[in-house]
## 1
Amino acid sequence: MTAEYNHTKLKRMEVTIIGAGLAGTEAALQLSKRNIQVNLYEMRPQKGTGAHKTSNCAEFVCSNSLGSYDKTNASGLLKHEMEILGGELIKIAYQCRVPAGSALAIDRELFSKTVTEKINSDKNINLIRQEITKIPKTPSIIASGPLTSPELANCIKELTRNDHLYFYDAIAPIIERDSINFEKAFYASRYDKGEASYINCPMNKEEYEKFYDILINAPKIELKDFEKNAKFFESCLPIEVLASRGIDTLRFGPMKPVGLIDKRTGTENYAVVQLRQDNSAKTLYNLVGFQTNLKWGSQKELLKSIPGLENANIVRYGVMHRNTFINSPQILNSYLQVKNQSNIFFAGQITGTEGYTESIATGLLAGINMSRYIEGKALLSLPKETMLGALINYITDEMHDKFQPINSNWGIMPQIELPKKERKNKKLKAKLMAERSINVLKSVCS
């Protein structure tokens, strides 16, 4: 579905992109393959973010998983849509994947290195290691991410005439595989789905209660004054925040034991801690759902209380950082274009989309639409029957009273009514919605 919109073709085919993260690099590659020159600005390594560890483009800073690649999963459908739209980073992600059952997990170091090399070797992309503190007057895509510098954030506030919002994100610890005790830990994927690629540390009731007691009494890193009223994104809550909701909250969340059977014992445990492969060499594993802001000494005590991790070698402790995002419903249209300044687009988590896959997807759409803007073509607005179209529709819906970041999910799409006897069949509904999305998107792209 394209807009009834046109623009006089610009004389100079050049675009500025701020931020060489997942969204910015995808947008740059989309513009390049349409023979449009790009100046891609990245402030690292001259200026750090507090969460990034390298100066590479498209660095994964939290989990190394992009979520499911099954098209009957909301995130998986979004990946299929990106492939149909000609996404570049999704191709690299599959090239750099590591075993993770039905999830697309990647070797984060290999992925970012591969993306950086592709950007550096592209004749149409000029990667400039410099902080941008003012919004350029030239056609620009702002993809500075959730860790946008305060100076640029203030400029965005002036540009949009709207306060930017914020929430807080936490990162999970990473440990060395060789320090795991496999007399207690075991490999399995939930319900034996896919490869047995997760490491699982089982707990009985007594072990879980000891773990829980350490967790709820552990000291946290003290927040600065301006951070005291922290807002957390619900799907990325620190484990200590989840635990504060009740002793069994974790057992129905990241430590859910259902479908994880240790075949050596044949029993289902009281709780299970899962670890996911973090690199291709299978030497590093991250703790699934263990984002945290505990002090490092407390993290060490907590992790070593987990059966199988008594001698764990922690190579990265969890940290918490501030995430910035704009009030997209008031600022952006469905093309990811600023309503009152047509030569500026936004992409990535700064728009209020949460998740790696979502960041790449918005970078893809922003890149396509910027190229159409440059070439004087009608801009592309995707139908709500597609996952990306539904996601963009959600974040740009002016009816939002209190806008908060969101992932891809089935609830944001137009629903399909099933016959009465099938209404509780969620798998069938997801399958039909996925098929509808792919058919609609293919017709748009034809």
## 2
Amino acid sequence: MDAKVVLLVEDNADDERLTLRALRKNNIMNEVVVACDGEEALDYLFGRGRHAVREHASMPAVVLLDLKLPGMTGIDVLKEIRSNPGTRLLPVVVLTNSDDPVQAAVCFEHGANSFVRKPVDPQEFSETILQIGLYWLLLNQTATNGAELVV
């Protein structure tokens, strides 16, 4: 079985550091690929640019997606993920500072699997990351890599 990779799409270095530290603190040792903006995330997923050499048939187990990114927004990234047959079934967790119910609704309308507000308290943040990791990496069953949605 392939190791389950996490794609973290986060432009804030402090939030990136907190997320990585929370995963390690909770003994979630999966490889984490960090993309600092939407274009880099899509390059990773679609095997473009500096990620052209990546085995793009193997997808991450989950994408942790921030909404406020430079250039293309998290919603734009989500739309691209859902519009491609090779990634449309990929689990995407929106992990954001926003608690706006309208923004959450927009994310769900565009195919987000989950919308999680980042707690400000470091201990609560660590617990949230633990719960996300346990669910999406251990409990959740995903479609086989490369599976396409047939409608």
